[in-house]
Amino acid sequence: MTRHVRPPRRVPGAEVPEPLPLPFRPRARIDPTPEVRTACPGPASVGSRRENARFWILSDLLVDRNPEFRLPDPLPEFDVLLVAGGVAIGLDVALNWLARALDGRQGNRPVLMVAGSAELWSETPMVEAVARGRELARDLGIHLLADDAVRIGPEAGGGTVVVGATLWTDWCLEGSFEGRLARVAARHSWADCRRVLLRRGRPWSPLDALGAHARSRGYIEDALTSIVCQSLNVARGPGTLVPGVRPGDRAVVLTHFAPSRRSLPDAWTGWLGDAWLAASHASDLEDVMHAWGAPTLWVHGRAVAPADYRIGRTRVVANPLRRWDAADAFDSALVVEA
């Protein structure tokens, strides 16, 4: 006779160890983005509900090479500005340009940014450059995200938690064996090896990028688990990775490097070059977008063309100024809803 053991009764409000391992599946399907949502400050109210949050998306502006570029005037109707890196060479230059270009026109609407590799081209070691960048960003009213998250929205819940990271490549876009070959080639050809410093006297390397990728990927995965558990009132406690999540909150991920090969168009001439070139733009994180707790939206930069597609429950969007096909018109006022 098979003995059935009744699972222990869960006491309401009891703390559950967090993060729960992925994949974690509740017995009944639970949608972590409830029907009743409250977006970030800004959208017009409809009765007791608000419209979905509107994200203005920009990346790869390279304003030092495109000095004539200007942000649209007036600014588009948006609730949060997401800048996926590639603004300018030097993090201080990029942050100062963004603050001047906005000139306070965003009002109290949040401005969030992750550093791209260009922002980290500096004679200052990366960790020090990011630490200084955080201080400068704070003074300028910008949120600079580097393996951390910020929550936006009403205290009652239904807000948005943006998880941000540079997300360096792991070089394994074509598999682990090709990844080894890509790292060998990149050591001789990748510009970041000559322009980014790990520490004084020690330049950045493809192996350093691999290590940084592992940390950022781990942070993103664990943060998404933390967010969805708290949004469903499953796990809360002093040791939670992303504190302060409210019921009904949804997750958005902001990275510089792309999370899927689908962000690189099939017709892109880069596929015809050395294998390391495509791998220097993207890694394969598609399983994160199929997992329970997947983000509603994933915005990235380092794009050679605009991207807008879905993987699992996640919409992936990129809106670069720099693009390989000049026929693609850049939309400086691109706003998407989540």
Brief sketch in words of this structure:
This protein is of the alpha/beta class.
How would you sum up this structure, described in words?
The structure is a single chain. This protein is 24% helix and 17% strand. It is built from seven helices and 15 strands. The strands form four sheets. The chain has a six-stranded mixed sheet. Strands 6-5-4-3-15 form a five-stranded mixed sheet. The chain has a two-stranded antiparallel sheet with strand order 1-2.
Shape: globular
Order of helices and strands: EEEEHEHEEEHHEEHEHHEEEE
CATH class: Alpha Beta
The biggest beta sheet is recorded as: 6 strands, mixed
Spans where pLDDT lies below 50 across 5 or more residues? 1-50
State the end-to-end distance.
51 Å
Could you say what the CATH topology is called?
Purple Acid Phosphatase, chain A, domain 2
Please report the total strand number as a whole number.
15
Helical fraction: 10-25%
Total separate domains: 1
